[in-house]
Amino acid sequence: MHLLEVIRQLSVALDLPDLAPDADGACALRVGELVLVLVPRPGGEAFVARARLGRIDAADFQPVLTRLLAANLFADGVGGPALGLDGQATVYLTQHFRHGTFGFPALLEALERFVAHARHCQAQLVEPPEAAATGLPPPAALPQGAWLP
User: Fold this and answer.
1) Mind listing the pLDDT tens digit for each residue in 6-65?
2) Adjacent-strand bridge partners of 113
3) Which architecture does CATH list for 3-134?
């Protein structure tokens, strides 16, 4: 299923106004506090679901990178969502979807799992109670309202 068809069917299934891709073919929709962005891959063979989880507010990224690596252990095999960190210390969750792999009901279910996973990961970025006891710097601080437009 190509991204344009996914966008059209999401509009219908979620009872949203007509969603329309931007000039680059991407589309964003807000799911609660989370913004889900669907971006076409070059060549038109796939698209990427992406969610910005927040920014890391720590001088030492090592503890955070270790936690991100551990969080990316693929319990269900490869092809699922993966956490990443950009040069501005912003954490993203991404997942690639190949066209023709899913019918819409299965794709909608996969996107719902992606959003649930993003929310879970976002909550995990907040300082765990044991970090305060060890004196380690907090791995992340998520600013309120710092979401994509």
Assistant:
1) 888 988 998 888 888 899 889 999 888 899 999 998 877 789 999 999 888 777 667 777
2) none
3) 2-Layer Sandwich (3.30)
